[in-house]
């Protein structure tokens, strides 16, 4: 643990304190109903949307008392991979409150993730301040609130970023094991596995030798959790792709060509078909998609092929639904974005000031909309 690492962790703690203060005041200033005389419970701001899905899975399982997709009003919980619920159930044996257990997971995982991100940035960039600057831009990014909530972003990054760091150092077995843990948490782990697989091939072709090729089998390990989960779902539903079909039923993730997805999202954003809250969300989806496309173009131009594959696969998965869903949250998983922005800010000092002036109010607004239950419109 170097002084630079400790500085990053101190920054992480300060931003967590800032977010908890925001959550505390949100439950007093923005009650669910007008005229109430008592604030919501302390953890109520974090009991939102996907956090409740994971809680229900961890507490009751995927198919409680024989319920399932054949049941009226089913919540399509099989859309969520089992890694996070399993860990949540384990932590709950020590931390009795489910929400507190989820927040603890995200807190610890977020610390691991931001530390690994800073180390990756220092490996990419020559400047001494690269790690700290990347952590600042990442922790103050518009959707940073989801790193603290009971969501999977922090846990996934706690596996994915150390996996990438291990792959950069040609420690293929460790990278494969960490990526395997990531695929148990999110399907995005498969995109990471593809990127690491390509990095392995490029390294082997560049002169890795016979010893490197002997590690090739490790690149197949990350497919094991998704395969096991598909087998489990097939045993209960008769459907090998039950998780994908649950996403289609609950979140409009049926396949559509990219241009149709863009058109439908654009209509939701500017066509007057949605309330202003939902329209704003669709506008954010479009903006995040443009950022992702620009990032892929830049990575291709710089011949960063593995990173380009990772982000491109993410964009394809998110950009081929009926309309875009969760693209802004996905930006948290695109570590080349935050490293690239850090590089720009180190070479153009004015950019950091401009970035923080623009992003700070947006980040605060997004945090408040989530913490007050207004995120989905």
From TrEMBL:
The chain crosses the membrane at residues 7-30, 98-118, 139-166, 172-203, 215-233, 280-300, 307-324, 330-346, 353-376. Pathway: Glycolipid biosynthesis; glycosylphosphatidylinositol-anchor biosynthesis. GO terms for cellular component: mannosyltransferase complex; membrane. It is a multi-pass membrane protein. Pfam families: Mannosyl_trans2. Keywords: Endoplasmic reticulum, Glycosyltransferase, GPI-anchor biosynthesis, Membrane, Transferase, Transmembrane, Transmembrane helix. GO terms for biological process: GPI anchor biosynthetic process. GO terms for molecular function: alpha-1,6-mannosyltransferase activity; GPI mannosyltransferase activity. It is found in: Endoplasmic reticulum membrane. InterPro entries: PIG-V/Gpi18. It comes from the Bacteria. PANTHER family: GPI MANNOSYLTRANSFERASE 2. This is Mannosyltransferase (PIG-V).
